[in-house]
Write a structure and sequence with these properties.
This protein is an all-alpha fold and 471 residues long. It has 2 domains: 339 residues, no CATH class; 127 residues, no CATH class. Helices cover 69% and strands 0% of the residues. It is built from 21 helices and no strands. The chain is globular and about 80 Å long.
Length: 471
């Protein structure tokens, strides 16, 4: 019986690996330029992509086979093996979760200059000290609600600097962790029993939402693939990206299913996220620490039927997967359209688009949502670095001269500095298109983030003063 169990477990795990591309799931916004406001690729392009449906088909085979096995003695034996392997973690699950939450906030405190993740930059030093306070508050049940409030406050503070659509990636997970801390601190057993339910749903929703970037903005991923071609495991780029999106969405969806489906989905996700640590470094480990901790707990959860799981017949699997895809895609594209319009944020096609704290590079009017240049991407045809630098300097001198001619000394200063900062951003982007030195590339990315934030502050000052921000 034990031999049969091990064989069945091996078959099930092999099915996970065979059904999914083991993509290193680094969050693209942490490592590549992007423009949140740009119009996403039409959903019809994804629905017409045969590789998208190939991925869906492979995952459905895995889900259906796993669910069928789960109903048999073999499925019970596999779950018994998982119970034995993960029992020690499940027995100390709350200690483990509190430790990871505290360690995460200590780590972001040590990194400094961010709200919650690497792309949410902040110039305010007190934010880092607030993170350290949150870490300290996690260890007492009396102060856990304060830690939860601190997490929500960090998200709201980031919302003042970054736009809502940018922050939706982090909302479900942040709310899930905050809700866990509140429920874990409760003296009511009927409340506490939901603490891991909210974590599971928070991670599942976060994964399904963020996976849509691979369908809406496949160009965001091109620079990473060009810089780290081994990530595709030999698959062509345009095959790998949609199938990676399917893998992330469906494994998130799998966390909401029955015991064997959700536990094998969690194991697959844990392997996938760990695969990203080496190529993307410690920052990826820090950024994904909370998600990785939750999926470890989901993999260890021995409860056969957890609350609020999708747990019906085999025919329900494809129906609910299609429904989930429809709901999330409609929400993602619909909300973007509502916030930015059909053609993206106003001004993207202008010669001087407004700066946005949510974007990490100046929009290219010809390719408004291409993450151009990062990771050795090709420069515009025929353009040399020298030509690009000289053209940027020419635009800067002309704009600065026009700005400093304003009769008001304060307005002249701000207009001149806006032109100066925008030129710095342009030069940094040229470095990303042409340069190869890692230190210079990191410096260029920091310049883009810092100068863009300052441009926004200066444009806000001009708006408040009644002056215009035109160059």
């Amino acid at each position: 019986m034990k031999t049969a169990s091990l064989r069945s477990a091996a078959v099930a795990l092999f099915a996970v690996i065979a059904a999914l591309p083991l993509v290193a799931q680094a969050h693209v916004k942490w490592f590549a330029p992007y423009i949140v406001e740009a119009p996403p690729q039409r959903i019809g392009n994804t629905l017409a992509n045969p590789w998208f449906w190939t991925g869906i088909g492979l995952v459905l085979v895995f889900f259906l086979a796993t669910r069928a096995i789960e109903k048999t003695a073999t499925g019970e034996a596999i779950l018994g093996v998982l119970d034995k392997l993960t029992g020690p973690l499940w027995a100390r699950r709350d200690d483990f979760m509190r430790f990871v939450v505290a360690a995460f906030f200590v780590a972001v405190f040590a990194v400094g200059g961010v709200f919650l993740t690497p792309d949410l930059k902040t110039p305010h030093e007190w934010v880092s000290w607030m993170q350290l306070v949150i870490a300290a508050l996690v260890f007492s049940r009396r102060t856990m609600p304060l830690a939860a409030a601190g997490i929500i406050l960090l998200w709201l503070l980031a919302l003042r600097q970054y736009e809502l659509f940018h922050l939706l990636d982090y909302l479900a997970l942040g709310v899930g962790v905050a809700a866990y801390l509140v429920l874990e601190s409760s003296d009511r057993p009927n409340w506490r029993e939901y603490r891991f339910v909210v974590l599971r749903w928070g991670v599942a929703i976060a994964l399904m939402w963020s996976s849509l970037e691979k369908f809406a903005y496949p160009d965001w991923f091109h620079p990473l693939v060009e810089e780290k071609p081994f990530l595709t495991f030999g698959m062509p780029r345009d095959v790998f990206i949609p199938m990676a999106g399917v893998a992330e969405f469906t494994m998130g969806f799998g966390l909401l299913w029955t015991a064997l489906v959700r536990r094998l989905s969690a194991i697959a996700l844990f392997v996938i996220f760990n695969a990203a640590v080496y190529p993307f470094g410690r920052m990826d480990l820090v950024g994904h620490a909370l998600i990785m901790a939750v999926i470890m707990i989901i993999a260890a959860d021995p409860v056969p039927q957890v609350r609020f799981a999708i747990r019906r017949s085999l025919a329900t699997i494809p129906a609910t997967l299609v429904a989930a895809l429809a709901i999330f895609a409609t929400s993602y594209w619909g909300l973007h359209h509502l916030l930015y319009g059909a053609d993206g944020a106003s001004g993207l096609a202008s010669s001087n688009p407004p700066a946005s704290a949510g974007a990490t590079h100046t929009p290219d009017p010809e390719r408004p949502h291409t993450a151009h240049g990062h990771g050795g991407g090709a420069a515009p045809s025929g353009e040399s670095a020298q030509q690009a630098y000289l053209a940027s300097m020419g635009r800067m001198h002309e704009a600065m001269e026009a700005g400093v001619k304003h009769p008001d000394a304060d307005v002249a200063f701000i207009k001149g500095m806006i032109a100066h900062h925008q030129a710095a951003i342009e030069m940094a982007e040229i470095q990303l298109r042409h340069g190869r030195d890692p230190q210079n590339r990191r410096l260029a990315q920091e310049i883009i983030q810092t100068q863009r934030r300052e441009v926004k502050e200066m444009q806000q000052w001009l708006a408040n003063s009644g002056a215009t921000a035109s160059r």
